[in-house]
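Standup notes
- HV: blocked on the assembly model, inputs below
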Amino acid sequence: MAKICRFFEKVLFAVSLSLAIVLAYSASSMAHFQMILPSDDIIEEGESNEIDLQIIFTHPAEAHYTMNMEKPLKFGVFHKKKTQDLTDGLKDFEFHGAKSWKSKFVAKGGGDFVFYLVPRPYYEDMEQTYITQYTKLVVNNAGFPTDWDAELGLDAEIVPLCKPYGLWTGNAFQGMVKHKGKAVPFAEIEVERLNAGAFSDLVCPGQRYPSSAHVTQVIKADDNGIFTYGIPKAGWWGFAALMEGEKIDGKDHEVGAVIWVRAYDME
Amino acid sequence: MKIRLKAILAILAVFLFSAATAYAHTPILYVEDLKDGTIYVEGGFSDGSSAAGIRIYLVEDSVFEGNTSVRDEYLEALFASEPSERAAYLEKLGCKIDGHGKDFSYSDLKPELFEKKLIIFQSQLDEHGELVLRKPEGKYLVVFDAGPGHVVVKQGPELTGAEKRVS
């Protein structure tokens, strides 16, 4: 009898180990998203024009496993056709156990402030692939639409075709995927909603998903590189167009063009 | 007769349509306290079109009852060392008083009102839709006047004691 018990124990252990490996692998292969998150996306009259920005590389929908980030190669802002380099002002901090970066910025004057990030390539050991996600975020001050549709000339870039702020829940968000300045026909775009409640341990509950297929939405651009997505819920939404980049040290290199937008419920 | 009527209706439709498109945007005014006795004013429209040349007023925030001292002191301080600019300003206002004259007094200027309130100073946004203005004394409003239905009014940040001492 003892021998049978020991046999079952061994079988259980082996099954658990296999499950753990499968789960760990599937988790790591889920969508990585480079984030730039501001403390305010639309600065209104009477609000402070000083905003905090967090730069985090994580899995926003599942709200787990955040990756360490080396200091970004470039972080800046584009405003009224002028670029300001903010890289030197970046400070590191720990977010859910991973090295992340933050910055403060004073939005002087009205208009759009297009923040952009060029991170260092991240090596994903499980996939033996480097990942570089060029990321954009637009913050507006006082309602002047000035630069939101600007193409910054990033290696990979989503150029929004509708204003990427002041969006209602249910709006369709549209953008064009570009790689080295050219539109990418039929580009694949992953879409995730930031599961802020689950991340920050706030009182509000995190998002629950009816199936694993609901976590990351996958859409494709048309033959002109233009994609459209109907935003079903208020919150921050990330769009990551993934493309093949030039190899690094003989390893595959996935290049991403990311943009973050926030939708609001109409009350 | 019918052809003429159709032509009139067509012209009317074109006119109405163009009027609708021209007004299908919201005027925006941004006022920032530069905390040095001046304010930064920026104007624009929700469709991104330019506000260059749009009129901006500084208005005393109380119903006008005949006292123009805030306006007079503001203009006095503004043009104290620039009499030629004063003359140009008065000319722009369409004022017939000689701005170069020795007996000139700001109190001789006819008071101009915005919604029954005294206009202290008026100017226009530059080619970038921007302007930096000296703050007047007391409570005041900043007005962006792009025509009927396109007026934005904001409370101006007040001149502080420290700013007065510096200026």
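- HV (later): unblocked. The interface with chain A takes residues 26, 28, 30, 32, 40, 42, 44, 46-48, 130, 154 of chain B (CB under 8 Å). Residues 26-66+111-166 of chain B form a domain with the Immunoglobulin-like fold (CATH 2.60.40.10).
- Next: hand off to the docking folks.
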